[in-house]
């Protein structure tokens, strides 16, 4: 609810000075700062002049009110004596609206009123109803000044404004000078940074070219290694197979009988040739995997058949009575899209490793379906692998210290990981020294 402070009549040119003067006095009385007093007085005089010419004058009411968020505002209503065209009001100068917080035409009890307002500072005195009544009485008793007095006040305000503008202009000149100096420094720094950046870019380009060259050399070296392994494997396979065949003939009962020492020597030759053939086959498999010549034959794979085959073929490798091979039956439906031969090769490799490095306990193969992925794990109770070597054992030809007496080439696990990656899965290791190992193959049920 607004609280009226003062009413004025705008009828003649002389009243414009009175409205301006009274507007400044009311603004000062309610606590507006000096600049805001001048702004609202100037806006009042402009609007009053336009209403005097366009509507034959107006009734002016000053009041205290609250805005939409509850803040105190000084509100001035100018009720034109004649209706405004279209019930709307637009100031001739757009600058007038910037002098106050709001300036618009509103409808009050069917009449169009030009209303302007300016927010009262929060730190201003809180006006109680008693204080508002006191201000209303003081403003009503105060004698209005003459037009000459108001002109003098306007001139004084104008001089003050000019002084402030001159001061701001001087400050602006100082700021412009400082800005020019700063710009010169910035440009110098920019030029320096540009030169350094260009030099760095040249170095980066040179380094990139060198890296490209090194990458090409590494690719060529890798291809050469793969070709070398493949060629050596092919060249060695025939003579090694021949050696195995000859040893088998010598040990055959249909051949001339051998002495005990000769039979032992032939057995050693046959065993060594078999180990060498295994190494040759692993080298050839690794060379194929590295060269990308292995293409998975995707099909629906029944894990029960794969596990059954592994259970039968690897049970014969369990030469120690202290070690038990356990192949659990996969949960139904035990199917996934993969390459049956490559998958069986991976699992056979992991189971063979587990049996080879486990002296007592068990080696267990189990499968588990988790959402859209299959988890195939091979767990043993062997010596275990230190955490710092978990990634090294997947390097070619690397063997955990202390296990070389068991045999092996160090190629099985790298080859197994490459095959698992080719099938769209991952091969991870969990192990601690003395607590066995767990190799986990995770594959998508729907294939890569």
Automatic annotation (TrEMBL):
CDD domains: HATPase_EvgS-ArcB-TorS-like (cd16922), HisKA (cd00082). InterPro entries: HATPase_C_sf, HATPase_dom, His_kinase_dom, HisK_dim/P_dom, HisK_dim/P_sf, Sensor_HK_Regulatory, Sig_transdc_His_kin-like_C. It is an enzyme of class 2 (transferase). It holds the Pfam family HATPase_c. Residues 231-447 form the Histidine kinase domain. GO terms for molecular function: kinase activity. It is found in: Cell membrane. It comes from the Bacteria. Residues 148-214 form a coiled coil. This is histidine kinase. Keywords: Coiled coil, Kinase, Phosphoprotein, Transferase, Two-component regulatory system.
């Amino acid at each position: 609810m607004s609280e009226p402070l003062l009413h004025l009549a705008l009828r003649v040119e002389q009243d414009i000075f009175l409205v301006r003067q009274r507007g400044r006095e009311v603004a000062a009385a309610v606590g507006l700062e000096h600049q805001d007093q001048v702004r609202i007085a100037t806006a009042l005089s402009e609007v009053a002049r336009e209403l005097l010419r366009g509507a034959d004058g107006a009734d002016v009411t000053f009041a205290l009110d609250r805005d939409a968020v509850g803040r105190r505002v000084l509100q001035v209503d100018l009720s034109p004596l004649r209706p405004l065209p279209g019930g709307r009001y637009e100031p001739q100068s757009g600058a007038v609206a910037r002098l106050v917080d709001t300036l618009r035409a509103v409808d009050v009890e069917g009449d169009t009123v030009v209303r302007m307002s300016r927010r009262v500072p929060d730190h201003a005195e809180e006006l109680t109803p008693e204080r508002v009544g006191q201000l209303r009485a003081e403003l009503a008793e105060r004698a209005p000044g003459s037009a000459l007095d108001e002109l003098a006040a306007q001139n004084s305000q104008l001089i003050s404004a000019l002084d402030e503008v001159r001061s701001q202009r001087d400050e602006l000149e100082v700021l412009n000078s400082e800005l020019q100096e700063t710009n010169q420094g910035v440009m110098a720094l920019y030029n320096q940074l540009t030169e350094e950046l260009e030099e760095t870019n040249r170095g980066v380009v040179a380094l990139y070219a060198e890296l490209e060259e090194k990458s090409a050399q590494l690719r060529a070296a890798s291809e050469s290694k793969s070709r070398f392994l493949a060629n050596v494997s092919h060249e060695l396979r025939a003579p090694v197979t021949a050696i195995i065949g000859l040893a088998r003939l010598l040990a055959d009962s249909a051949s001339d009988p051998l002495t005990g020492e000769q039979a032992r020597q032939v057995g050693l030759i046959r065993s060594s040739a078999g180990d060498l053939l295994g190494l040759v086959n692993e080298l050839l498999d690794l060379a194929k995997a590295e060269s990308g010549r292995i293409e998975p034959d995707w099909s629906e794979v029944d894990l029960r058949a794969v596990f059954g085959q592994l259970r039968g073929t690897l049970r014969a490798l369990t030469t120690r009575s202290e070690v038990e091979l356990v192949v659990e039956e996969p949960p139904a439906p035990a199917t996934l899209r993969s390459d049956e031969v490559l998958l069986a090769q991976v699992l056979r490799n992991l189971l063979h490793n587990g049996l080879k490095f486990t002296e007592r306990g068990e080696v267990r193969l189990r499968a588990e379906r988790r959402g859209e992925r299959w988890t195939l794990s091979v767990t043993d109770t062997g010596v275990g692998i230190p955490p710092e070597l978990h990634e090294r054992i997947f390097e070619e030809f690397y063997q955990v210290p202390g296990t070389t007496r068991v045999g092996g080439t160090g190629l099985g696990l790298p080859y197994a990981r490459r095959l698992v990656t080719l099938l769209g899965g991952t091969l991870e290791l969990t192990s601690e020294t003395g607590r066995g190992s767990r190799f986990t193959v995770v594959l998508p049920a729907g294939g890569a």
